[in-house]
Amino acid sequence: MTNLLQIENLSVEYKTRRGIARAVDNVFLNLEENKTLGLAGESGCGKSTLGLSIMRLVPHPGRINEGKILFNLDESLIFEGGSVEKGQIDLMQLDDNQMRAIRGRKLAYIFQDPMTSLNPLIRIGDHFTEIIQAHEEDVKKDEAINRGEEILETLGILPERITDYPHQFSGGMRQRVMIGLGIALRPRLLIADEPTTALDVIVEAQILDELATLKKQFNLSMLLITHNLGVLAQTADDIAIMYTGRVMEIAKTESLFEDPKHPYTQCLLKAVPDVRKPDKTLAWIAGAPPDLIDPIPGCMFRPRCEFAMEICATQPPPLEKLDTGQRVACYLYTKGVSKK
Asked: What is the CATH number of the domain that holds 202?
């Protein structure tokens, strides 16, 4: 299977008054074509920053200070003043105009809060017109509106509501509008950042079903960012677990739920309710994540880990592939390391 997206040694820093906070630290990830990669972890672990990094939209005062973001472009893009050639390209090497040509057409992002992402002063139809005409200048406004109506209807929204304003929609419908804007140009990769946050479970299920349908209909690959492991159990082919900006474990979804390797992953799964086990005692992870501005040496999960060893305080464990196929950053699985 071909990798659509390949992230190598990616690090992102934010400059604060107290110092530099490394929000994403030496991340390696692969996303195959037509697959869904789930990205999970506690709030503040770097999930959204990683997603924004792929789009080259890390907000100030953040910056990508090293790494590669390799994307498999299926066609050459020509625009006024330049072009981007097809093939595997490093998004970090593109200028602003080249990156702007790729956003929306090949890479799309669904933001967490649609109410703050949609412009409250313009109608939904104008949102569709803006994004379509920005990339397809020969498309007339009426055609863009018609395309927007078709997309809304696909998502279960009456086409005539394209003349409404964002505040006239419910939370679930606004989220559908955001999804519609994301797929308006038929991108190859859709990054969905907490697409079901603050929605009730019924609407959440509907949104997830619609995303799965759109993924098949348009041959999308998807990076699904969430703190809800239950959502990923339904939708993801593979799952990456992040903690304090680092990837702790990557595994096939079934393998991760059946046999989690990293102690942090094990703790997260123990905290997930299971309707099949009503008597299950929910666990919690004692303590709090370390300060990213003044990080501790070694494994960042060490102060909260019941399996911590002396070597865990020396340097971060490498992300190594096990015989099971899972990749884990933990000295428990490093050959030749004393487990004392």
From this structure: 3.40.50.300
Prior bond of 61 cis (ω within 30°): yes
Two tokens, residue 174: 């606004």
Residue range of the domain that includes 81: 3-243
State the DSSP H helix or E strand holding residue 65, giving kind and residue range, or none if neither: strand 62-73
Q: Measured between alpha carbons, how far is 183 from 50 in angstroms, rounded to an integer?
A: 20
Name the token pair of 162. 């394209």
Please write the tens of the pLDDT for every residue from 161-209: 999 999 999 988 998 999 999 999 999 999 999 888 777 888 888 888 8
DSSP state of 236: -
> Which pTM value belongs to this model?
0.93
Model confidence pLDDT, tens digit, residues 58-117:
998 999 999 999 999 999 998 888 899 999 999 999 999 999 999 999 999 998 878 888
Q: How far is residue 150's CA from residue 303's CA, in Å, rounded to a whole number?
A: 52
Q: Are residues 12 and 88 in the same domain?
A: yes
Which among 279, 280, 281, 284 has a CA at the least distance from the CA of 264? 284
